[in-house]
Amino acid sequence: MLKRYFLLLPLFWTGFAQAADADKLKQQLEKTLPEVKIDSLREVDNTGFFEAVINGEIIYFSADGRYALQGDLVSLESRTNLTEQRKVSLRKDILNSLDEEDMIIFEPEKTEHTLTVFTDIDCVYCRKMHSEIQQYMDQGIRIRYMAYPRGGIDSESYDEAVTVWCAQDRRDAMTRAKQGEELEANTCDNPVKAEFEIGRKMGVQGTPALFMESGQMLPGYVPAERLKEILEQSSGQS
After folding, report:
1. 206 vs 10, 44, 84, CA distance in Å?
2. What is the distance between the alpha carbons of residues 145 and 119, in angstroms, rounded to a whole number?
3. What is the Cα–Cα distance from 38 to 160, expressed in whole angstroms?
4. What pLDDT, on a 0 to 100 scale, did the predictor assign at position 17?
5. Cα 63 from Cα 18, distance rounded (Å)
6. pLDDT averaged over consecutive 10-residue blocks of the chain (238 residues)?
7. pLDDT of residue 62
8. Spatial separation of the C-alpha atoms in residues 109 and 195, rounded to whole Å
9. How many Cα atoms sit within 13 Å of 31 on the Cβ side?
């Protein structure tokens, strides 16, 4: 999505020559690429790079604005992937900002861990995971479902997600839909489009996409007992 913008960058490097700090660099980028919204821009330690967050993606710029880097930035000294570390931090911030009123939540009697899951009604492993929802709750795992219709906006999977959200009993509708039952189409004010966009911003490319409270992502189905082990290990490292 960003590639078409960065193909234009060589035409404008001379305009960045005086961008010696974050504020000036940000002004130049916004002027040159008005279609791109820069969420944040900051210097990365003493690397000479500035990190720009653009629609959830991380792009690096040299301090003088002559070069851009799209990829992972790794510290050879600490063997740390600084880009992935930053992505996890950004995801955690997003997770903490979400309104649970917009989610469909399956909650155990005693919650030990909370998992945010971007799900599609029809995907095979989303259905497999939901068929084992009681097993997750037995492990003390609270599941917060967010809609991520793989077909995108204005697709059949999008309409199915809206129908589930607009049902009087959303959890029951979710279960029946994932069991293959065709629900009567329904519509109302709903968060499906917003959740789809949030998922894209967080790097979701397939479903189910599981996010731990730390911001770490587990792409794909994980059995309940194994998931509990991963969550315990993650919380122990926090």
Report:
1. 33, 30, 18
2. 7
3. 33
4. 40
5. 9
6. 48 42 82 81 85 90 79 90 93 96 97 97 97 97 97 94 97 97 95 97 95 95 96 78
7. 79
8. 27
9. 11
Encoded tokens for 48: 């000479």
Calpha distance 1→143 (Å, rounded): 31
Instruction: Find, among 230, 199, 212, 92, the residue nearest to 142 by Cα.
Output: 212
Cβ pair 161, 149 in contact under 8 A: yes
- The pTM is what? 0.84
Do the bridges between strand 49-54 and strand 38-43 make them parallel or antiparallel, or are there none, so unpaired? antiparallel
Instruction: Note the pLDDT of residue 2.
Output: 53
Given a contact cutoff of 8 angstroms between Cβ atoms, the answer to whether 141 and 108 are in contact is yes
Among residues 118, 120, 134, 122, which one has the least CA distance to residue 180?
A: 122
Per-residue tokens: 212:
């731990």
